[in-house]
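Methods — Computational structure assignment.
A single polypeptide chain was analysed. Its primary sequence is given first, followed by the predicted tertiary structure written as structure tokens.
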Amino acid sequence: MRALFLLLGLILAAPALSVTANAADGELVIRESKYSVKETIDRLAKELASKGVKVAARIDHSAGAKSVGMELKPAEVLVFGNPKLGTPLMQTAPMIGLDLPMKMLAWQDANGKVWLAYTSADALMKRYGVKGKDQVFKTMAGALDKFATAASGSSQVLQRGSH
């Protein structure tokens, strides 16, 4: 009986373990959302607009899958940016443009939980070897955290990029 409860516990924890394993490199900030995928991304878009941040694109991966006769649980990406933050980084390290503008992904897992993830500012700084722009990255990290909290309804982070 004890073994059965242990096995059941491992099965129920598997989705959270897989989310953490996917972010084990410490580059992603992931939090659970209290809302559906669509509502999470809608809330993110509204928060960005209220702060004057430009939304460049909204991508519905589920709709894309459906358009080719395939199924995918709800998953959407919002692409957004602030040239006042991004331009100084691109002036220093043009290749950071591969990751700018920023993106947040909301997706529903096999158990119906919705997650929100984005690449941490620290990861971008390390990935592109940007020096002398610590304040820009600090500002970016704070803004991303506020946007993600507003979108997900949660400030609890499952995974945070290493600092």
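Note: Residues 86 and 160 are 21 Å apart (CA to CA).
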